[in-house]
Amino acid sequence: MKSASTLLSIKELEIDYPSRDGNGRVTAVRGLNLQLEQGEIGCLLGSSGCGKSTVLRAICGFERVKSGEILLRDKVVSSITNHLPSNQRKVGMVFQDFALFPHLSVLENIAFGLQHLPSIKRSLLAMEWLNRVSLSDKADAYPHELSGGQQQRVALARAMAPEPDLILLDEPFSSLDIELRERLAGEMREILKTNHITALLVTHDQFEAFAIADKVGVMTDGKVLQWDTPYELYHKPSNRYIADFIGRGVFVKGIVLPGNKVKIELGELDLEEDRSKELGQEIDVLLRADDIQHDDNSTMQAEVVRKTFRGADFLYTLKLASGIEVFAFVPSHHDHAIGEQIGIQLVADHVVTFSD
Ligand code: ADP
Ligand code: MG
């Protein structure tokens, strides 16, 4: 459903490329739909090769569409019959490697997209954007004198300075240190939100996606499977692929009991009310690492098979009596040895099940 403030709308988008052997075409994007509201930050999340960059290039106008439509505000900018040139779309792009001009200073890089303004105004505006990304002391520096995170902020300021309707970011954190990424994702979100900028980014990293975006679309094979808030994706995945892709979890067998409950090896769980199932039906129940709690006093036991130290907690892999392995996050002061039996309890909320 489209609302008055819809900024970007993509309908049944299909894009293909000539195949490598030159004898045909390969489809990179098929039947893709999404909608971004004014001021929202969206993210396409999917593994390498699923078509993320192709979607961004198509929105920018660098790629022609085979079928479907791209609308910016209410205007069709891409379809089989329409193709608005890139420079008329009011879309800014931040590339994966930032693509700063090495021979221009930071200030000149930002001023680059403001050629239409008189020179004094251009410098003032560039300085203002530099300020907004907290880099005013770096105006005269050259890109190679900056850290990766600072270069990224310059690239962002350069894209924002001409005040586009929409900013696109292709894997904006992938060339930065892993430890930095989550913090920078938070910072970038703040800059975008403070400046009321609508943005669509793509990444293969779900922590980045969750740290920055209001809406995330899980993509595979050229399609968006579910376009939703991170919370809904995690707690209400619409299909098995997403349940598997997001978070750490395993499927265990369950039997539907009266009273809209399901019985699994570890106990009984309440089913979501709107998903009524047949009594006695066998279903698959998703158990995430946060659905199982360690409890030294519990009589229900499981064997520690593997453990990964993550700082504040361990991710334990636990073997149940039946031999099935499940995951659990356990506070890191509970340092149990591999092979040890530990007490566990089921604390699942939002029970996710699939019956096919
Ligand atoms: P992602 O950004 O998710 O890694 P891409 O959009 O870059 O994915 O690519 C999607 C698919 O399209 C891949 O199979 C890729 O090999 C193919 N592809 C991308 N660009 C081209 C191109 N210019 N010519 C031919 N095939 C391409
Ligand atoms: Mg890509």
Write up what this structure looks like.
The chain is built from eight helices and 20 strands. The chain is an alpha+beta fold. The chain has three domains: 6-90 and 164-241, Rossmann fold (3-Layer(aba) Sandwich); 103-163, no CATH class; 248-254 and 283-355, Nucleic acid-binding proteins (OB fold (Dihydrolipoamide Acetyltransferase, E2P), Beta Barrel). The two termini are 29 Å apart. 37% of the residues are buried. The model has no long low-confidence stretch (mean pLDDT 92). Residues 17, 28, 46, 48-54 line the site of adenosine-5'-diphosphate (ADP).
Short overview:
This protein has helices spanning 52-60, 106-111, 119-132, 148-160, 178-194, 206-212, 230-235, 240-245; strands spanning 6-18, 25-37, 41-45, 67-72, 75-78, 91-94, 166-170, 198-203, 215-220, 223-228, 249-257, 261-264, 267-270, 282-288, 292-294, 301-309, 313-319, 325-331, 341-346, 352-354. It has 356 residues and is α+β, with helices and mostly antiparallel strands. The strands form 4 sheets. The protein has a 6-stranded mixed sheet with strand order 6-7-8-3-9-10, with helices on both faces. A 5-stranded antiparallel sheet has the order 13-12-11-14-20. The chain has a 5-stranded antiparallel sheet with strand order 15-19-16-17-18, with no helix packed on it.
